[in-house]
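2024-03-11 09:14:02 INFO receiving multi-entity request
2024-03-11 09:14:02 INFO entity count = two
2024-03-11 09:14:03 INFO echoing inputs for audit
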Amino acid sequence: MNLPAALLDTLSQQFPGDAMATGMAERLAYAYDNSRRNALPDAVVFPTTHEQTEALVQACRAHRVPVIGRGRGTNTTGATVPVDGGVVVSFERMNRILRIDPDNRLAVVEPGVLNGDLQQALKHHGFFWPPDPSSSPWCSIGGNLACNSAGPRTVKYGSPRENTLGLRAVAGTGEGFRCGTYTSKGATGYDLTRLLIGSEGTLALITEATLKLTPKPSALRTLRATYRDVSAAARAVARIMAQPVTPCALEFIDDVALKLARDYGGDGVPLAGAMLMIEVDGEPETLPSAVDAVSRAARGDGLEDLRVAETAKETEALWSARKALSPAQRTISPNKINEDVVVPVSHLPELVDGIKQLAKKHDVLIVSFGHAGNGNLHVNLLPRDEAERERSHACLAEIFALVISLEGTLSGEHGIGLVKKEFMPLALQASTLHLMRNVKAAFDPEGILNPGKLLP
Amino acid sequence: MNLPAALLDTLSQQFPGDAMATGMAERLAYAYDNSRRNALPDAVVFPTTHEQTEALVQACRAHRVPVIGRGRGTNTTGATVPVDGGVVVSFERMNRILRIDPDNRLAVVEPGVLNGDLQQALKHHGFFWPPDPSSSPWCSIGGNLACNSAGPRTVKYGSPRENTLGLRAVAGTGEGFRCGTYTSKGATGYDLTRLLIGSEGTLALITEATLKLTPKPSALRTLRATYRDVSAAARAVARIMAQPVTPCALEFIDDVALKLARDYGGDGVPLAGAMLMIEVDGEPETLPSAVDAVSRAARGDGLEDLRVAETAKETEALWSARKALSPAQRTISPNKINEDVVVPVSHLPELVDGIKQLAKKHDVLIVSFGHAGNGNLHVNLLPRDEAERERSHACLAEIFALVISLEGTLSGEHGIGLVKKEFMPLALQASTLHLMRNVKAAFDPEGILNPGKLLP
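2024-03-11 09:21:47 INFO inference complete, emitting structure
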């Protein structure tokens, strides 16, 4: 235990009974996230109110002790790993949906509400909240906001930054504040709402969010297109995104991933040079013409097979390859390096070709798939032994350099956390980083909020 | 002339010939904006490059001289009036469209490009940039970004904050920097892009913007609905926004405004208790069902007449009332007080009723119209003499208090500038304002960028 006794006293009063944990078992349970990085916190607290969170930050600030906000730890970048110890604030007990207001197309939630639970609650009202990370059933809205976590639907409906109206939060100064609006439009001062979204808990702890809801289209159609090679598929993505009908999902899966998925998932998974999974949504009257438009764009040089699911069962069958992918990867390598680079869509063919070449050059197994409609590729390096692991790191640096040269950036939706912060100077100018550090100091002068993350 | 001689020397070298103006005629021409406020700058400069803008801010910072960015001065809040003198930076000569990239759905522009010119250039590519202030033919993109200026289409397509991917800018520190991405998605550090949008030139001067483009729907249908009274119309707005088909414009015009427009514009303008102008866009196959859905929602208690334009000529006729409104107001009062409050859509009926009562109580002529789909009302007070002018100011304070009590905020799209900054503590907590001041200091430690604006 490294916490000063005085702070521990204060915290015990603020978080009585099981609202605080200092035993080794609990500390271990909150030491890691999905990055597989690990560092022990000195204590874990479970606030249930905004006021408690305010008091916590004030107490920790007085003692210069780190405060690390945590949703459900599903992020892959180490953003919630307490590298300098301190107090982990788990928002899992602040999990109430405070208000669903369909007339104003908004919902007010506490940060610990699970993404999937919110979607379920919204269904009855005919609305949804667009961000849909693949961890949706077990990741929290607070975490989604902290990391600007997106998902397949972003291509049509945007990320948390486009789907949040306002926040309540506690800055590193210990000040509680509200920002943003309950209205769908606003020009009253600086946009602190978007500034907090994606700041990975380094500026403030979010204690409440006003989310913008979208009416749920009543119909959805799934298409699966296979291509001769990755370049042909990538060119089809660029064609699809250059025409007016925007699909609500446009997922890319490369040949290596397909093979893996087939080995694991069986014959239902097609063998091809690459595959696109496409979803188009709309109203029953409009859907056929939308599907036509997207199908036309999907066709072209290198297309091997294009199927449109007509039933729920067929839809499920088409998605089987994508679903088999995550467990299949785990069978190959427990040390997966999971990246989510992003480039302008038209540069996707160069990116997938370049990654193939780098995989060959460094003799590393790379599986690429992801949200191609946004140019956002999950590039997973799967080292099978220590030597390949070392080669992977060299390869990764070259992948980032390639991405930057293609006008892309380091992360589309996973964020920076621990694992990518050293690469930030590749993506951002020194002056931009300097201003980001100034912004950090404006919210958190002592640097107690999630130290060691995001900024190099 | 109040500029230090040394600074004037430096500026003369940086801005040779007609790139700088210090004569009284030019200073007068850049002393005002559409707020009718007025203050003389000491000099006006016309940069043509980012580098020149950087050098300018560095020079002014060294002498602690104010720097006021300016697009075309169409804003109504005094945001570009140089209240403390200093150097006005007019971006009118940085007016090149640098890149139109339909494959990536983006355009890169200099800040002086006119909104209307950009829309024209995008037409050939089948795209548009959603923000469409009514000053669109003569306002600049830089000004749109600085003020988060929106317009009718925002109800469906969002404001500049939802339609900008990245910026290049010069902070008050004199540092040039890039923020944001060329990609449609990104989670690489703090969102400085949105922070600058709507900051009214108080954090940085924007020298380049990467704008997100939207495919232009190929068809548009205009509807006009008249109602017995403002409450009935406001309730119809709430109904329209609670169903899934979002119109691309949903404009409200109250009885006083209609009468004014008819006096000025003739019999084509209907007499009614209130009117909605509705536009629905889409593809030819989808439009009829969308128009049906919106029409159903527009019907209800208090509807008097619902017309759907079938031809371009009919569309024009339906819009005549809205078009006659601005010139009509000018015939009444040269001292129009032009507000743009915003409330959650479901509170619109209470807002329009409340405004009616306040107009009566203070004996002030008030005309209300605006972007009702966002709950954004332009509340125009039209004092006809000095006594009414004084009563108007008392009335205005009560309007703001009403808006806040209805969970609304001070500005939907005009911003704060000079004229609303004293009301900011009504809308924002002291802690939020304190953090905004910290953010200001992070970008502009000497407070040279547009002093006296936005923050009280």
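2024-03-11 09:21:48 INFO post-check: Residues 333-443 of chain A form a domain with the Alpha-Beta Plaits fold (CATH 3.30.70.2740).
2024-03-11 09:21:48 INFO post-check: Chain A touches chain B through 95 residues (CB under 8 Å).
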